[in-house]
């Protein structure tokens, strides 16, 4: 593409004129005009004092006019590109930003992405960043402590879920450009998702300048006054891993500690197989909360707690897998993430779908292709594939029958299925009458399987129907227990007639 314009991006350093690089001074000393992201910077004041005839253009007004930071930076980049093209490639536009142009400068990042599309070349003149003087003020070695760098404007717009992947609270972090009280408030709310509200943080103001200050406050008081300004950086000291209770890293630390040589004897004895029962139990406890779901804060808290118990089982399995050098937590994340991307080409690719049914057909086709890629012969696989053998028996019966029915193995109508129920019931009665225990078990299984097929014909879920029946029985029996306590009687003392009468009364009194 033919060159249409040029922009020289200059880093103004942290604030002192002495910290401005020689290269930056040379560029600025011969400039007829300079575009500044903001004039609110000590170096700009010194520059204008030295060169009073300098035409200084800023984008400060956009900070009040723009609807969002995304709009702000898009507008800055658009205007810079427009004016660079108007000047032509022979007269580079000078764009000056605080600190180093590549550290915490969203407008520069976007310029690098968009300017080449307009035929605009970029030249970078480095500057001292805010990191060095802030670290000097705190006595912090950024490499030794694995320092993280974040931008306040981006952090304020980060969702809680995304924040957990963007910030590790067990490592120190600097949050730059906390330039006013309103932004400090939004940053506080974001950080409160993963840090304790009482956690002591530090506001470093005017680092490297004579006015340098360090103010330590609890996180909840971050926005209590007007300490924050355009030269303020927030320092987040690292949390102890056992205090990082709102992020995955904390749970991983705890599970590793439980399995350590000096950890919990019970946890150390567990294996993949011994934990199986707990995975099932925790999953059922999650389902129990969902069954009682009413959208209340109490239910939400219960669901969060039960999901945490279930998540623990995943982490324990991962810890054992890692100890045995079989798989790690990263493998678990990788498998599910890549699988979701692969099986949703209509979301992450260029496939178009019409409706949910179309999505499900694609899903099955993709799964079949995955099995073929693993070397499985999908031409001879059973249509019953995909029904877990360890699933609840009633669920298996329903799913096995439905899959078989797709091949034509089914009764022509609901009446035929109901007649089969009666037939199986008669056969069960005959085996019971003859005292044939093994045969009775087989016939009982056939009867239950047939009932599951009837459910399919009626478009009902047998598991849900039986679950509802269980809950009705529980309510009615507990009503009889309450009546017995009220009358001072033991249930074992009831006659057959009383049982029937009490049950009928319980049915009338409960739903």
Write out key terms for the chains shown.
6 domains, Methyltransferase, Cobalt-precorrin-4 Transmethylase, Domain 2, Helix Hairpins, alpha/beta, Cobalt-precorrin-4 Transmethylase, domain 1, 511 residues, 5-stranded parallel beta sheet, single chain, 5-stranded mixed beta sheet
Write the layout of secondary structure elements.
Elements: E1 5-11, H1 22-29, E2 33-36, H2 42-50, E3 55-58, H3 62-65, H4 69-87, E4 93-97, H5 106-114, E5 120-125, H6 131-138, E6 148-151, H7 152-156, H8 160-166, E7 173-176, H9 181-191, E8 200-205, E9 213-218, E10 232-236, H10 248-259, H11 265-269, H12 276-291, H13 297-323, H14 329-343, H15 345-348, H16 356-373, H17 393-405, H18 414-433, H19 437-457, H20 462-487, H21 496-509
Parallel strand pairs: 1-4, 1-5, 2-3, 2-4, 6-7
Antiparallel strand pairs: 7-10, 8-9, 8-10
Helix pairs in contact: 4-5, 10-13, 12-13, 17-19, 18-19, 20-21
Describe this structure in words.
With 511 residues, this protein is of the alpha/beta class. The chain folds into six domains: 5-129, Tetrapyrrole methylase, N-terminal domain (Cobalt-precorrin-4 Transmethylase, domain 1, 3-Layer(aba) Sandwich), CATH 3.40.1010; 140-243, Tetrapyrrole methylase, C-terminal domain (Methyltransferase, Cobalt-precorrin-4 Transmethylase, Domain 2, 2-Layer Sandwich); 248-342, Orthogonal Bundle (Helix Hairpins); 344-373, no CATH class; 393-460, MazG-like (Helix Hairpins); 465-509. 53% of the residues lie in helices and 10% in strands. The protein has 21 helices and ten strands. It has a five-stranded parallel β-sheet, sandwiched between helices. A hairpin with a 7-residue loop joins strand 8 and strand 9. The longest helix has 27 residues, at 297-323. The protein is elongated.
